[in-house]
Amino acid sequence: MLHRGNLRRVVGVSTIAVLIAALMAFYVADYADAGPTRCQQHRLDARERAGVVTGRGERVLVIGDSWSVGLGLDDLAGSWAARLPGEVHVRGFSGSGFSAGASGCGRVSFHDRAPTALGVRPPLVVVEGGLNDYDQPARAIDRGFRELMADLAGARVVVVGPATAPLRAGAVPRVDERLAVLADLYGVPYVRTSDLDLDYLDDRLHLTDRGHREFGDAVADRLAGVTPARPALLGR
C-alpha cells in the first residue's frame, strides 16, 4: 500500500512523463511539417532547373553552382545560362564548386556530377563557378579541376570564373587566378568575370533578375571570342 507521500511522487513522475511524451510528439509533428532541409531544397532546385531547356542550335551543357540554378529568383528558368546561344542544358547545384569540400551536401562537386550531366551528350561544356571554393585550399581546387577535366576529356570545354560578389570579394582574386592557371595547364579557355559590376540580392552573394541578365549577356559575349578546346590528358 502506497503512503500519501509516495503516491504524490508517483503521480508527479507520471505527469512529467506524459508531458515529455506530448512535447516529443509535438516536436516530431513540427519537424515533419518543417519542409525540406537546405540540402534537400538545393536538390529540388537542381532538378527543377535541369528540367528547363532553353534555346535552339548546338547543344550546350552548363555545369555550375547556385548562379546557374538561379537561386533567389522567383523563376529558376531565368538564370544567366538561359542567355547563352544554343540548346542549353543546366546541371547546377547550389553551394557546389570545383573542390569536394566546397559544399556540405555530400558528393556534389562539379567532378562528382559531371558523369551524369554528360548524359545529354553535349559537344560544348561550359563550367561556371569558383565562388564556393573561396575557403578551400589550392590543392583541393587543383584536385577537383584535374578530375573534372578527365571527366570532360571528350568534349569541348570553356571555364567561366567567379564574379566579384561583395560577400566574398576578398577571396575572389585568389580563386580566379588559380582557375586561370589550371585552365591554361589543361589547355582550355578561361573566361574571367571578376571585372563585372553586377546587381546583387540583399545577401550580397546571389544575383537579381537584372544581375542574371547582365552576367549571362557578358558571358555569351565573351564566349564568342574564344575557341573551346578539349582538355589535355595529364597524369592523374
UniProtKB/TrEMBL annotation:
Gene Ontology molecular function terms on file: hydrolase activity
Ranges where the SGNH hydrolase-type esterase domain occurs: 62-213
SUPFAM superfamilies: SGNH hydrolase (SSF52266)
Any Pfam family the entry gives: Lipase_GDSL_2
Keywords, alphabetical: Hydrolase, Membrane, Transmembrane, Transmembrane helix
Keyword hit for Transmembrane: yes
Alphabetical list of InterPro entries matching this protein: SGNH_hydro (IPR013830), SGNH_hydro_sf (IPR036514)
Superkingdom, natural source: Bacteria
Name of the protein described by the UniProt record: SGNH/GDSL hydrolase family protein
Stretches that traverse the bilayer: 7-29
